[in-house]
Amino acid sequence: EDKVVQSPLSLVVHEGDTVTLNCSYEVTNFRSLLWYKQEKKAPTFLFMLTSSGIEKKSGRLSSILDKKELFSILNITATQTGDSAVYLCAVASGSARQLTFGSGTQLTVLP
Amino acid sequence: KAGVTQTPRYLIKTRGQQVTLSCSPISGHRSVSWYQQTPGQGLQFLFEYFSETQRNKGNFPGRFSGRQFSNSRSEMNVSTLELGDSALYLCASSLAPSAPLGVNEQFFGPGTRLTVL
Description:
The complex is a heterodimer.
Chain A: E1 3-7, E2 10-14, E3 19-26, E4 30-38, E5 44-49, E6 56-58, E7 61-66, E8 71-76, E9 85-93, E10 98-101, E11 105-110
Chain B: E1 5-7, E2 10-13, E3 19-24, E4 31-38, E5 42-50, E6 53-57, E7 64-68, E8 74-78, E9 87-94, E10 107-108, E11 112-116
Parallel strand pairs in B: 2-11
Antiparallel strand pairs in B: 1-3, 3-8, 4-5, 4-9, 5-6, 7-8, 9-10, 9-11
């Protein structure tokens, strides 16, 4: 059975801090790993990673995948209160349209 | 381009009833997946439809079913509702499988919040 584990489950930081969120996985026929941000509604797409060692970057957020060690990290630098959300990691396997999600990391950024 | 739309946004039902939820994918997207999100279990895959055929199914009982129409719109149905079916039901759309690698990410709709009393 495919498995995605995220850590930590929750994190409280102050504005300006840098955070690293972790995602490890065990899946059959890995296709890609995706990061989503979920505030009060539906998850919004952040990154999709398919190749090992290539960093994806968008503003203060960046992510990298290690296919040998089966994990990914999501970094957020200079955090802001608007970064407060649940960050979800999902792995696409098999047909690539079925996603297995981790339980998420609840990030709270205090002013 | 309009995003994924889901109706209704909120629904209250009682145990034993049945419910139908609707999802319209992004224009041009032909694959629709359904997920159930609860505080205890997180996001769990229900099923996926492409070209009016169910392609993948998650580990849910037969009370959960779905279908897809020729215009790619999809419905899911839950019969004989149980209290534990209370959840946010999310629909996600993506391009057809022949799309180049790198564009098969799924885009989520706002969800339908189902409460079973």
